[in-house]
Amino acid sequence: MVYFFYNILVFKIDWILKFLSLFVKQIREELEKRNRSLQQIFSKSADGKFVIWLHAASVGELDQAKALTETIRKKNKNVFIIQSVFSSSVKESSFQDPLADVYFYLPLDRAHAYDQIFSHFQPKVLFIMAWDTWPNLLKKANQMGTKSYLSCASLSSGSSRKNPLIRSLTKASFRYLTGIYPSHELMAKEFEGLVTETTDFQVLGDTRFESVLNKLENKSPNPTFTNFLLEQKDFLSKNKPVILGSTYGICEEHFITYLKKHKDESFYWIFPHKWEKTRMKDFISNLEQYGSVEVFSKRNPGDPLPKFLLFDLMGILAFAYRYGSFAYVGGAWLHRVHNTIEPAALGLPVITGPKIYNAPEAIVMRELGGLFQTETESEFIEKIHLLTTDQTLREKMGNGNRNFVVENRGASDKIYNRVFSNAQN
Question: Which InterPro entries does this one have (predicted)?
Answer without folding.
Answer: Glycos_transf_N, Glycos_transf_N_sf, Kdotransferase
